[in-house]
Write a structure and sequence with these properties.
12% strand, 209 residues, 5 strands, alpha/beta
Amino acid sequence: MSQSTKIKLLIVDDHAIVRKGLATIINRDPEMTVIAQAEDGQQAIDAFREYQPDVTLMDLRMPKMGGVEAIMAICAEFQQARIAVLTTYDGDEDIYRGLQAGAQGYLLKDSKLGELLNAIRAIHNGQKYIPPEVGAKLLQRMSNPELSERELEVLRLMAQGMGNQEIGTALIIGESTVKSHVNRILSKLGVSDRTQAVITAVKRGIVSL
């Protein structure tokens, strides 16, 4: 197969060893070739503009600019962009945000080699690729009540260990208002205390510590 007919890939990950490992695996497939690599979201956008890959494998959490922001920027500029999230994070919020940003697939880094290559081919052919376990978490996310922007702000400060009074000061709102936000957060997350709320939010990818 000639170089021009191979599926051309961009790999975006902040760990050099991951990028090199993926490139080695993918380049062994006679139908694929890695044409560029990037280590953060901004580099990903620049590399996409320069190389116009057929398929991009995008990590989610990276320095400077994360994967969700990069996917949104690339898809806004290149409507035909085909991007698969490839990450260690399987929280339902991560999955939801990645796909909502414009990714056509969502794979975990512990996926088997065959699944990764099949996903690349499917996405290159214009199909979506969402493994069953990822799809189940996405459905769970769709059925969960959405946190408001203010509730997310309160939750992030809770995750930093702040009490109601400190949160009120930080957000310039009254302590009683903070308490009502906290109660709504506990209700929406289906938990009974602040510690469980933070643990659940981190597991689901709503906040990161």
